[in-house]
Design goal:
This protein is α+β, with helices and mostly antiparallel strands and 108 residues long. It is built from 1 helix and 5 strands. A 3-stranded antiparallel β-sheet has the order 2-1-3, covered by helices on one side. Strands 4-5 form a two-stranded antiparallel sheet. A hairpin with a 2-residue loop joins strand 4 and strand 5. The longest helix is centred in the first third of the chain and has 18 residues, at 25-42. The protein is elongated. It starts with a strand and ends with a strand.
């Protein structure tokens, strides 16, 4: 079972949300359908978007001390297929924290 957050964005810019536990894609669809029915019965505002987000309820995020990093010349700032220059690819690590999933560059 995983916990998901289903968010319905309404045409008046309000958001309605529900936490649900699912074990399959069919469960996700069933919860969305049920949520939409509930909204249409209780509210005459139109749903313009539905978002499904995973909840990391048991995830422990790492805490690191503040550090200053010199990134000069390490990230390409022009239109390109590759975000990072080839010389730094070996130092790029995926990291998840309170800001989401990011590419982090560590050097010695």
């Amino acid at each position: 079972m995983i916990v998901l957050l289903i968010v319905a964005v309404l045409s008046n810019n309000e958001e309605l949300a529900r936490h649900v536990q699912v074990s399959s894609f069919a469960d996700v669809c069933a919860h969305i359908s049920s949520f939409m029915n509930e909204i249409h019965v209780n509210n005459r505002t139109q749903v313009i978007k539905v978002l499904v987000q995973t909840q990391h309820l048991r995830e422990v995020l790492s805490n690191k001390p503040l550090s200053v990093v010199n990134m000069y010349g390490k990230i390409t700032h022009i239109a390109t297929l590759h975000v990072h220059t080839p010389g730094v690819k070996a130092y790029i690590k995926k990291e998840r924290n309170n800001f989401g999933l990011t590419d982090t560059v560590y050097t010695v």
